[in-house]
Amino acid sequence: MEDLINALKAANKTIIDVRTPEEFLGGHVVGSINIPLNEIPERIDELKNNSSKIVLCCASGGRSGQATQFLSDLDIDCINGGPWTQVNYLLNN
Length: 93
Description:
By secondary structure, the chain is α/β, with parallel strands linked by helices. The protein has one domain: Oxidized Rhodanese, domain 1 (3-Layer(aba) Sandwich). Helix content is 42%, strand content 20%. It has five helices and four strands; from the N terminus they run H-E-H-E-H-E-H-E-H. The protein has helices at 2-9, 21-25, 44-48, 62-73, 84-92; strands at 13-17, 33-34, 53-58, 78-83. A four-stranded parallel β-sheet has the order 2-1-3-4, with helices on both faces. Strand 3, helix 4 (62-73) and strand 4 form a beta-alpha-beta unit. The model has no long low-confidence stretch (mean pLDDT 96).
């Protein structure tokens, strides 16, 4: 949890919500971007060129965990933030 808090406090971070666009429209962390889990492999180059710490989130932490594992295996610096509501809470408190 401390790693997540530190990542969220960093000035240079990118929050990626891996839920579907419909879920994202129902509520999300302000400033986050929506890249659905199934689109992550197609956007590897974009994510590799990202110079900030990537925090991934979803509804419960399952899909963001899958994305974190996939990206970590490719040496992309990222952390699983778990549910977007948790990320939102930690970011704003």
